[in-house]
Each structure stands twice: as C-alpha cells, then as structure tokens.
Amino acid sequence: MHAPVQRSAARSPGLVHFALAMGGFAIGTTEFATMSLVPYFSKGLGIDEPTAGHVISAYALGVVVGAPLLAVAAAKWSRRTLLIALMASFALFNALSALAPTYHWMLLFRFLSGLPHGAYFGIAALVAASLVPYDQRSQAVGRIMLGLSVATVLGVPAANWLGQAVGWRWGFAVVAALAMLTVALVVWLAPKDRPEQGASPLRELSALANGQVWLTLGVSAIGFGGLFCVYTYVASTLMHVTGTPPWGVPLVLAIFGLGMIAGNIVVPRFADRALMPTGAALLIASAVALSLYPLAAHSLPLVAIDVFAIGFAGALGPVLQTRLMDVAGDAQALAAALNHSAFNTANALGPWLGGLAIAAGYGWTSTGWVGALLALGGLAILGVAVLADRRTA
After folding, report:
1. Predicted structure pTM score
2. Count H helices, E strands: the chain?
3. Fold adopted by 10-192
4. What ranges do the domains of the chain cover?
5. DSSP secondary structure string, 174-234?
6. Which residues contact residue 101 at a Cβ distance below 8 angstroms, ignoring those fewer than 6 apart?
7. Tens digits of per-residue pLDDT, 101-118?
8. 306-362, pLDDT tens digit by residue?
9. Smallest Cα–Cα separation from 381: which of 244, 214, 236, 152?
10. 251 backbone dihedrals φ, ψ, rounded to 5°
11. Locate the Major facilitator superfamily (MFS) profile domain: which residues (predicted)?
C-alpha cells in the first residue's frame, strides 16, 4: 500500500475532497463544453465542423494514452506532488488551446490537454480514499466525481455562453484559470505524503498481469458505453423525435447532469456496504432506463425522467474505482488511472455503435436499445469477475 499521509498536517477530509473535486470540475467543463464550442472554433480556425470534431477525438486519445503512461512514469513521485504537476500541465495546455493559431496546433494542444486527465482522477481518488475510514472509500471517490457531474450542469453552460458572448477562446481560458485554482487549493489543503518505499514503474505494470483489473476495466469500457451512446445523440433525438422547442434541449441536458449528481451522492453509501451488488444493480437499472428510452423519447416529460435515470446510473464510476483499489494490489496508481482510459473507451465505443444503428436506418431512438445491450454486456463481465472471485476464495 502507499505510504501513509501525514494526517496531522492535513486539513479536514471534506476540504481536501473539495479541492480535488475542483479539478474534476475543470476537467469536466473542458471535456463536455468543447463539444458545444465546435461551431465557434471551427469558424475561428477556418475549418468545417466535421474536421473540428477531430479536436474532441484528439483530447479523448490523450486521456487514453496519458493515464497509464503518466501513472507508470511518476510511480516514484508523492501523490500530492503528482496532483500539482498534473493540474499545472492541464492548465498550461488549456491556456495554449485558447491561443492556438491554427487547426493543427489546436489538435496538438487538445491531445496534450487530455494527457493529465485520467491520471489526475485516478490519483485524486486514491488520495480522497486515504483520508477516510475503509468503509467510506466509495463516498470519498463519489465526492471527487461530483466535480465532473456539477460541470455538466454549471460549467458547460457557462463556458458555452462565454464562447458565444466574448469568443470561443475564453471558454478554454476559463478552464485554465479553474485548473490553476485547483493547483492553489491542492498546495494549501492536500496532506503531504512521501513516495512509497519500493515504488517503481515495474511494480505499477504488475497491474497488467491481474485478471481482475482487466475485468473491472472491461465493465467500465462496455457498461458505460450505453450512457454515452444515448447522451451523444440526445439533442438530435429531442429535436427530431420529441419535437422539443429550443429551450428544451439544454433543460434536458441539465436534468441528465442532475441525475449524475444525485447518483454520486446516493449510490456510494450503498457501495461502501455492498460493492459488487451495487454495481450489478446500477447496470441493471441502466439497462432498463436505456431500453425505455425509445418509448419515452416521444414525450418531453417522460424523456426528461428517463434521461435523469440514465445519468443517475453514471454513479457506476465510483463503484468501479473502489473495486480497482481492492484488486490492484501494489499497482494502485496505474489501475486507478486506467479506469479513466476505459471510461473514455466507452465514450468512443458508445457513440460509434449508436451512430451505426442510426446510419442503418433504425432511427434516433435506436441508441437506447444499443445502450441497453452495452449495459448488459458490462453486467455479464461483472458476473464473470464475481465468479472468478468465488473460485479464488
């Protein structure tokens, strides 16, 4: 296990969790707001919108690549120092994104901005969990993920409004400022710790030989795909199927974010008592909510309720993060960071499969059926993990 923090020098766990959640707020704002800023920076950089969409893919690729690489490379660093370095680099690359002179520079800066994302969330979750009793770890991780959830309700609309009002570059500049605020809060509030004795990149890589780590990552990559499958096309579904007026689209998207917030507050309390049953229940609930989406999509009140339920099931994140702490052994940093690589794999897989269904002529609401199948796929992988645990026991 990681060397214990010097708790006497630390602030209260709640303040530390707030500081770490601020980083999640900054990351969530740029990750989701960039999608809504595509029409603006595409014009500013002289490219069409489909080409501008590659900027989003570049960020996601940076997350997938950066999470394991940085976790392994910084294996001998203290967690506090690593958090500061990760968020400072995140601030720098977002500031450079705001100054990008051409499309290709923008592509590079968004890729670099994505590199610290997964490692930050992974290390922040480990620090948060280290400050509370063993049976409150999921709640601690849930508080960190609240920053990401709140970003979908407050940060994204604010960044989009700013992009429209004074220019898209300010959307990225504000994220850089939020990241620097996080650096200051972590320096002030996070407990000082020492690098773990015997830590090394090779020891972190031992996670790759752990079957339970891979099964947990599989649940994340497949099970979460359903949420992204629907979320990516929900605006188009609202306009073309529900017949929602213009004011209804941001309202439903905000309701989705409220569902995520509620899930991250409520679900971890159950996860700390029964981790794997809670994960299974969430995947079943997600499959049900996603399968009801094609029926609910024809009514604005019903689709709003269903989208809230889909967002609520997004609380699977803290459950899987805690599961990785249980199975990763001495490779805690790499396993924790890889969860966010898997999360972004789901972010790519879900929309891709949903797009295939729409292109095949099954309609906008077919994303619900595809998403339900992905949730059930995650449930099946979770079942394999449970059976493997029982055989080992």
Report:
1. 0.84
2. 16, 0
3. Growth Hormone; Chain: A; (1.20.1250)
4. 10-192, 202-392
5. HHHHHHHHHHHHHHHHSPP--PPTT--HHHHHGGGG-HHHHHHHHIIIIITHHHHHHHHHH
6. none
7. 999 999 999 999 999 998
8. 999 999 998 999 999 999 988 888 778 888 888 888 988 888 888 889 989 998 999
9. 214
10. -65, -45
11. 16-393
